[in-house]
Amino acid sequence: MASSIIALLLFLSSPFISFAASQAAKTFIFRIDGGSMPSIFPTHYHWYSTEFAEESRILHVYHTVFHGFSAVVTPDEADNLRNHPAVLAVFEDRRRELHTTRSPQFLGLQNQKGLWSESDYGSDVIIGVFDTGIWPERRSFSDLNLGPIPKRWRGVCESGARFGPRNCNRKIIGARFFAKGQQAAVIGGINKTVEFLSPRDADGHGTHTSSTAAGRHAFKASMSGYASGVAKGVAPKARIAAYKVCWKESGCLDSDILAAFDAAVRDGVDVISISIGGGDGITSPYYLDPIAIGSYGAASKGIFVSSSAGNEGPNGMSVTNLAPWVTTVGASTIDRNFPADAILGDGHRLRGVSLYAGVPLNGRMFPVVYPGKSGMSSASLCMENTLDPKHVRGKIVICDRGSSPRVAKGLVVKKAGGVGMILANGASNGEGLVGDAHLIPACAVGSNEGDRIKAYASSHPNPIASIDFRGTIVGIKPAPVIASFSGRGPNGLSPEILKPDLIAPGVNILAAWTDAVGPTGLPSDPRKTEFNILSGTSMACPHVSGAAALLKSAHPDWSPAAIRSAMMTTTNLVDNSNRSLIDESTGKSATPYDYGSGHLNLGRAMDPGLVYDITNDDYITFLCSIGYGPKTIQVITRTPVRCPTRRKPSPGNLNYPSITAVFPTSTRGLVSKTVIRTATNVGQAEAVYRARIESPRGVTVTVKPPRLVFTSAVKRRSYAVTVTVDTRNVVLGETGAVFGSVTWFDGGKHVVRSPVVVTQMDTL
């Protein structure tokens, strides 16, 4: 200990605290070995502010899920601090983005049945929502007939601009905001003319996700007449704790997100819902990803963390939030749509969608024009100041999707004198359609329909068109369909772990909204609405958060891994036409790279029969298996660890509910790989399960033993899955993988399915 103190004091004597005049200061996050603090310091804060950075430059001090602090320093100072013997890791603050009624019933929930049957189901569970805050006055957040706040709750209701303790109740039991990272990163600080320096939501996204997860019943709900009916969240009686980490104009910063994880775990939440991810295309290793680090700290204390898979689909390897201790959720459609058809002068009616609620066109035809006849251009994208009023005045304008917000294109058309807009997908968006609350008569159409409309507009001497807005239609088939934007596998960090884990409703979801902005979120939109309809994996994530809350209430002794397993092994793989799930972007059959284990079916997850549990030690073994050393792992786990030295573990042996066999690309000929899984019986004490194997095409899969016998004394059984493939003959296809499954049946109602993925890829 004496030698370490001497080393620290020698380091302290170096001039690392002064600013370098030639460098701009930035926010950095420092992971510190908390056990190295000399005894002369009463707290870690005193240590950090004495040895590492001046008190005025420290933003957050992390105690719970992470040991360390964030501070504003120059890059040179950050590099100098890396050499401090107590510093385990340093990373620059990174900006993240949000992954922007009827959906609970579509998950298999029914009034007065199953997880909605008991009067207080979920009321003992607290969901922490990391987002843009909350608009507390909405009916969705009423505490009518809710019982007392759980006694174990240790959180607070922070005061700020237009928000105080009176805005919390027995529904919203806590609210915090985290702005220090933003204030340091944004020149001039947070813009208080458009933002509330408080938990109040100026954006709407957080209000929407909170009510999706746990909104109360709200009768006569709609968005300007669309999706009318009763709006309610997945867990209507669960408690909400709002953690505002994202800001309307400046997004979400890692330093603030990590502080929210620290607070939420300390406050006593049971579930964390985080519809946030990287929007820069960069996938950081787990030890440099504060969301992965914070999530591990939460999961290690028994808190379920659900996250969005990202909206960069349908490209392969676009899924985000990849850590195996996080439940990663992709997006699907539901059986409700808002059709709006483009009607051409030649009689063709082309399918589209819209949430336009203004004065309809009533069948009146207008000239139609495409401003990008020579191909993609700023005019074809209807960017600001690109449309010539002489060419578009009094016409319906065809605009290509991309580069600017969809609804903003309509405003550009309106300013140029256009009367309407047809928004056409490009090839990258395919046929995936998202409804928007346009400010002018407008609809969105798929890539194929868009090409047909453009061809008509360019070839006909006097092209005309109209738009027919057909309101809300329920019972759409097929549904669910994998949303074209939903992030896709494979997992770019650990291909042995299939991501996303599952899919849930994320297209055209009705939920509560803020009064600070209109339904489009545009500053020029003066409309106010109690509810709004949004799409994104941001909307899918809180469905799983609410589902986890209900399962936690029904099974309080289940771990986060057991809850995820229950959801993953009981999913649906067919749509409401009883056909295989399809990919919206292609119209073809989807694969586990698109939907993970399948579509959430909460009714079946209540009683899964078997679960695949994972302990903290299992996660540490996994981190060892992917080549992380003890010091690197300590950045994530907070405590020193030891990795096996004799035999390196295999990442495929993590007790995950899905199975991925990865063979090196250099492999030629007949090869095999065996993975081990351990099933825990959570059903009837006396049970016998038999395996049914669906081998991927060109692959042989065997399971030993093929029969699992459970008794009151034996609740856990292990089995081996061996995958054998001749790489000279197997055809991996467009996805680079082939797919099958291993399913366990007990002869009764329990069907426990794990997808099997076989691929060739070079890994560690």
TrEMBL record:
InterPro entries: PA_dom_sf, PA_domain, Peptidase_S8/S53_dom, Peptidase_S8/S53_dom_sf, Peptidase_S8_Ser-AS, Peptidase_S8_subtilisin-rel, Peptidases_S8_3, S8pro/Inhibitor_I9. Residues 122-578 form the Peptidase S8/S53 domain. The keyword Glycoprotein applies. SUPFAM superfamilies: PA domain, Subtilisin-like. Residues 1-20 form the signal peptide. The active site is at residues 131, 205, 538. Residues 38-99 form the Inhibitor I9 domain. Gene3D superfamilies: 2.60.40.2310, 3.50.30.30, Peptidase S8 propeptide/proteinase inhibitor I9 (3.30.70.80), Peptidase S8/S53 domain (3.40.50.200). Belongs to the peptidase S8 family. This is Subtilisin-like protease SBT1.6. It comes from Arabidopsis arenosa.
